[in-house]
Amino acid sequence: MGAAMLCPAALWNYECGQLSLFAACLLAGGLLRMRDAPWRAGLLFGALIIKPQLGLLAGVALLATGNRRALAASTGTALGLSVLVTALLGPQVWHAYILYGTPVARQILYASLAPHSYETFGISVFWMLRSLGAGLALAGAGQSAATLIAIALTWRIWRTDSALLTKFAITAWASLLATPYGYTNDMVAASAALAALVAARGWRLGLAAPLIWLWPALSPIIANAVYLELTPLITVLALTWCWRAPPRQTAPERLVIPA
């Protein structure tokens, strides 16, 4: 648990006051309790509407497993939270979001990589291709391909009899490939899954696991030094490592639920 709560991604999340740590708990809890507590898992997934880019693949996992109860609970929770926000703040909040929030987010997404900019903390394929000089169309096409690959990986892993911890890890890391808009503080769930998987393997680290775990701290340093966003390459390395390093235990839930 300490390796998860004190990972570089979580420490940066504490510093910048983002919701990624809370969202990571929602994603982890939902994925790890889908099987034995589908209604509770659905509630957690639905609450991910506060940071939907981290929950893009939760629906894929639900569809792959045919978990209709969790799917219904997540849909109902997301709709309920939307209605609650509208009741508390009024319908004008959505108008403000579309009129002001969306253009600002689009402006950040489309910006070129510059020293000490938001993009130096970026983790998406879109931003990596932009840092390599790709235009918006090419970067968008590359991101679309990465999203489809992430969906396919998530569908595939949840259709197998792999250990639940492996499914959680693959889904958490694949979610970083799926979104064009993500930062190093959004790597908390993936880092926690990596730490839990390492613990389940008896702390057999090798060389890849420490590099992956430390990458959220290294990424902005490297991006500012060479003006390249390389995090998707680390994500692919992490996915490969997680797929090839299944936990020894056949029932890993006891190990990972605290994390």
How large is the radius of gyration? 18 Å
What percentage of the residues does DSSP assign to strands (E)?
Answer: under 5%
Q: Report the strand count.
A: 0
Average pLDDT value? 88
Query: Helix share of residues?
Result: 55-70%
Major beta sheet summary: none
Helix/strand order: HHHHHHHHHHHHHH
Q: Judging from the principal axes of the Cα atoms, what is the shape?
A: globular
Spans of at least 5 consecutive residues whose pLDDT stays below 50 are 250-259
* Count of helical stretches: 14
How does the helix and strand content classify structurally?
mainly alpha
User: Looking at the chains present, what oligomeric state does this protein adopt?
Assistant: single chain
Task: Quote the distance from N terminus to C terminus.
Answer: 4 Å
